[in-house]
Every structure is written in C-alpha cells, then in structure tokens.
C-alpha cells in the first residue's frame, strides 16, 4: 500500500455516541434576551429562526477534482461562478463558493462525518483539504416580507433582488461582524455566523427587527 | 470610501471589506545571505511614496481572503485598475492611459514563458 496523504490524516467524529447534552450557540441568549413570539401575520411576518447543529465542512482544492467527487458523493455540483450557491432537490444540502479554491458544504447534522469519509476515500491522493467547522459556526434564518429591510440596515452589501438573486451567497460585514449571507429561496435569507458572534448577531437582529415586529421561531 | 473591484470575486465591494497591505511588486532578494546591509534594509524597510500612480497590495479580508494588486492615483484617490497576484499592471507611471497593445502582448508572452 502506498503511504498516501489520505491515510495520514487523522479524522474523528465530532458527535460521539455518548449521551452528552448538546446546546445550540443561542441557548443562553434565548434566556437572557428573551425570544419574542412570531406575530400572527402568517408567512409575511418577520421571523428569525436558528438552524443549530448542522454539519459544516470547508472544502479546499482544485475545482475540477472536487466537482467530480461531490457529484458522485453528494449529487450536487460545485457552483461554477463566484458567489454561487447550489442546493440539492430537498434544499437541505448545499455547496457555496467562498473563494477561488474554497467551498462551504452544509448538510443536516450528523451526516458530515460520513460525508467527509466518503469524500476522502474518493479523492484519494488528490491535493485537497476538508475541515469540519460545524462546531464554530451556526445558521440564522431570516424570513418574512421585511427581511430585506432588516438586512439593508445591517450589511454594507447591496441586497436588492436585482443584485442578490436566489442562489447567491457572499461573505460580508454584518453589523461589524463577519457573516456569510445566502439566499437559498425567494423569501428566505440565511446568515452563517461564528458561534462566538451568534449572541451578538441575534441581539442585533432583535433590535433591528423590533420596528417590524420580529419574532423568534424555535 | 473606496468601492473596490475584487478580481477574484469579480464584483465591486465596499472598502470596509478590504485591508491595504502596502506597496506591491516587492521582490525578495534571490540570495538574502549575499545582500549587503543596505540592500537588505532597503528591501525590508524602504518604500516608495510617489505623488501620482502607485501600485498597492490589498487583501479582501472579509470576503474571499485573497491578496490582489491595486493601481491607485495617490493625488486623486482614483483606483485605476485592480489585478490578480502574479499579473503585471497595464497602467503605470509611464503609461498612464494603459500600456500599448504591442507592449502588453510582449508582457503576456513573457508571463507565458515563465509559466512554461
């Protein structure tokens, strides 16, 4: 057996079988800053919802090799263009362009270790890197008619639909914090924030969304 | 505020996302041990401070986190062009309206030679 790079990489499952309670990064924020109930405007009301404990993987390497491996293992291709975001049919798994040699994969929690292993097996000796960053970041989902208004108050990036269509995702400045803003569907915006900034971003959203009657869905 | 075109992201972004990193195109001496103190000191510490066209290194710190070059007029603050690492500027102090086509072609073939 050749002594390949893949065999020298030590991987481990960040979700052990042991029954240790796992808390979302916002567990304490809900208590301290409270969580106003969504108002009764139905689908139009402004709602922030956390998608905690998803599987986040950073994939780096050459686009052609990685694209082939992803098609085989995940069934979705790498975004061809900068700022691209590609989702699978269910909308639960996504790949996003972060830089010319870097992509962010988000899958349902618990799938990431198995996916990482399958990708490593398929990529073999290719020049690449996979890092599980799920413990370091979380996803906040913003939906409702006024979601764009809140973003316009918070980010320096132009979020007008003509400039930010569905299927786009950018890394930018959100209220002095670094976030990844994604638009997976027409009426939903996702903010991928650092775990350590989650409380700050949450409280900022509550404050910025107060005038629109923001609510928190759990 | 600058509105800077990132050659890697392929679009204009706010200055807040970027960070300047000083003068561009500073080549490290081939053999540092053979440098005189003066040569090494010049390489490490001394930078140009031109009035007019200046080539600078910037990083898209909140974004793709890639380094790239900016040609900027230090008098008017106008950004004349941005280009990727390893590329040569088409606008320089000698050619403030852009490098002539023939010259640019020569540069391209020169780069081709380096790559091959």
Describe the structure.
By secondary structure, chain A is an alpha+beta fold. Helix content of chain A is 24%, strand content 30%. Chain A has a single domain, classed as Probable tRNA modification gtpase trme, domain 1 (Gyrase A, domain 2), CATH 3.30.1360.120. In chain A, the strands form 2 sheets. A 6-stranded mixed beta sheet of chain A has the order 8-9-10-7-1-11, covered by helices on one side. In chain A, strands 3-4-5-2-6 form a 5-stranded antiparallel beta sheet, covered by helices on one side. Chain B contains 2 helices and 6 strands, in the order E-E-E-H-E-E-E-H. Chain B has helices at 37-45, 101-115, and strands at 3-6, 11-14, 19-23, 53-59, 67-73, 79-84. Chain B is an alpha+beta fold and 116 residues long. In chain B, the strands form 2 sheets. A 4-stranded antiparallel beta sheet of chain B has the order 3-4-5-6, with no helix packed on it. In chain B, strands 1-2 form a two-stranded antiparallel sheet. Chain B starts with a strand and ends with a helix. The model of chain B has no long low-confidence stretch (mean pLDDT 88). Chain B is globular and about 45 Å long. Chain B has one domain: Folate-binding superfamily (Folate-binding fold). Helices cover 21% and strands 28% of the residues of chain B. At the A-B interface, strand 8 of A face strand 2 of B.
Structural class of chain B: alpha+beta
Number of strands of chain B: 6
Helical segment count of chain A: 6
Largest sheet of chain B: 4 strands, antiparallel
Q: Tell me the name of the CATH class of chain A.
A: Alpha Beta
Q: So how many helices of chain B?
A: 2
* Computed Rg of chain A: 18 Å
Query: Biggest interface: chains and residue counts?
Result: A-B, 14 and 13 residues
Net shape of chain A? globular
Per the CATH scheme, the topology name of chain B is: Folate-binding fold
Mean pLDDT across all amino acids of chain A: 91
Range of helix content of chain A: 10-25%
Strand-residue fraction of chain B? Answer: 25-35%
In terms of DSSP E residues, the strand content of chain A is 25-35%
Low-confidence stretches of chain B: none
CATH architecture identity of chain A: 2-Layer Sandwich
**Count of separate structural domains of chain B:** 1
* Low-pLDDT residue intervals, each spanning 5 or more residues of chain A: none
Shape of chain B: globular
Q: What is the ordering of alpha helices and beta strands of chain A?
A: HHEEHEEEHEEHEEEHE
């Amino acid at each position: 057996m050749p002594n390949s790079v893949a065999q020298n990489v030590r991987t481990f499952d960040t979700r052990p079988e042991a029954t240790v309670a796992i808390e979302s990064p916002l567990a304490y924020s809900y208590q301290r800053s409270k969580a106003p109930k969504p108002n009764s405007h139905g689908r139009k009301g402004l709602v922030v919802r956390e998608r905690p404990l998803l599987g986040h993987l950073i994939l780096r390497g050459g686009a052609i090799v990685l694209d082939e491996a992803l098609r085989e293992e995940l069934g979705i291709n790498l975004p061809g263009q900068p700022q691209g975001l590609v989702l699978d049919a269910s909308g639960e798994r996504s790949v996003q362009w972060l830089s010319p040699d870097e992509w962010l994969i988000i899958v349902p929690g618990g799938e990431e270790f198995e996916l990482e292993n399958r990708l490593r097996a398929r990529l073999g000796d290719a020049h690449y890197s996979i890092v599980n960053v799920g413990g370091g970041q979380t996803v906040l989902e913003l939906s409702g008619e006024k979601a764009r208004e809140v973003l316009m108050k918070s980010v320096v990036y132009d979020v007008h639909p003509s400039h930010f269509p569905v299927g786009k995702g950018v890394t930018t400045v959100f209220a002095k914090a670094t976030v990844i803003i994604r638009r997976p569907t027409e009426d939903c915006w996702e903010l991928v924030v650092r775990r350590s900034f989650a409380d700050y971003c949450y409280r900022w959203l509550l404050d910025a969304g107060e005038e629109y009657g923001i609510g928190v869905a759990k | 505020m600058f509105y800077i075109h990132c050659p890697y992201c392929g679009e204009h972004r706010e200055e807040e996302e970027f960070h300047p990193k000083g003068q561009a195109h500073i080549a490290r001496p081939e053999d540092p041990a053979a440098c005189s103190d003066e040569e090494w000191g010049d390489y490490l510490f001394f930078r140009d401070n031109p009035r007019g066209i200046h080539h600078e290194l910037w990083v898209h710190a909140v974004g793709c986190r890639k380094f790239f070059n900016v040609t900027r007029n230090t008098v008017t603050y106008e950004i004349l062009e941005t280009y990727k690492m390893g590329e040569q500027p088409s606008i320089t102090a000698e050619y403030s309206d852009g490098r002539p086509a023939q010259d640019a072609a020569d540069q391209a073939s020169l780069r081709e030679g380096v790559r091959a």
